[in-house]
Amino acid sequence: MRYRHPEPEQIRVDGVLSALGHPVRLAAVRVLDEGGVHNCGSVLNVLGITAKSTMTHHWRVLREGGVIFQEPSGRENLLRLRRSDLDARYPGLLDAILSGAATDDATG
Amino acid sequence: MRYRHPEPEQIRVDGVLSALGHPVRLAAVRVLDEGGVHNCGSVLNVLGITAKSTMTHHWRVLREGGVIFQEPSGRENLLRLRRSDLDARYPGLLDAILSGAATDDATG
Where does the HTH arsR-type domain lie (chains A, B) (predicted)? Predict the structure, then answer.
């Protein structure tokens, strides 16, 4: 099975914002922003999340919003941030969001 | 009755994103971004929305997310975008979001 992803021109900013407007999804994207391909399990480990089923929903929201690529690989899923697509369509948006999350961390 | 608003340092980026991650709320904020104080009715007119009760919910989400100030005035509510608070805490975020909405308009 392959997952469906929106084409770059099908991405909508309200979909990106609602996808990232959740603390768990925002935290997951911050992990993915370190670059490269991650598998679900490794992201959950970093986040300290054990409820894989809940995360399945979050990955879907991020994928359908155009924020991540998700591809099955054996019994795992590989995840990658769509940074170039997002930066091309919405210049500065992802950086401002990730900087904002860091600001929130710093101010408790 | 006065509404409660988060202090600038209580604003969280995921709250801002989820508040703006809805097409009606994003459209309302684009109207408010024209500047100054608006009343609910005038924003609804611009958006072509007649269901005032639904909008009450949307104003609350925007207010609690720290995106707008909402103050009662007689039988109306006055609304104002918290642009300076948002720009100070999350530089570039609101501009990137509003530019993104314009990009979406332009690409259908």
Answer: 15-95
Nearest CA in chain A to B106: A9
Q: Cβ contact (<8 Å) for A92 and B92?
A: yes
**Minimum-distance CB partner of B18 among A22, A100, A101:** A22
Rg (Cα) of chain B, in Å, rounded?
13
The verdict on B84 touching A (C-beta cutoff 8 Å) is no
Give how far B11 is from chain A: nearest CA, Å: 8
Tens of pLDDT along chain B (108 residues) come to 689 999 999 999 999 999 999 999 999 999 999 988 999 888 988 888 878 788 899 999 999 999 999 999 888 889 999 999 999 999 999 999 999 999 999 986
Contact B93 A90 (CB under 8 A): no
Give every CB contact of residue A10 below 8 A, 6+ residues apart in sequence. Answer: A66
C-alpha span between B48 and B61 (Å, rounded): 20
No. of helices (H) and no. of strands (E), chain A: 6, 3
All domains of chain A in start order, with CATH: 12-102 (1.10.10.10)
Contact flag B9-A107 (C-beta cutoff 8 Å): yes
Tell me which residue of B44, B40, B30 sits closest to B77, measured CA to CA.
B40
Minimal CA–CA distance to A30: which of A20, A16, A39? A20
Q: What is this model's ipTM?
A: 0.93
Does the model's pTM come out above 0.90? yes
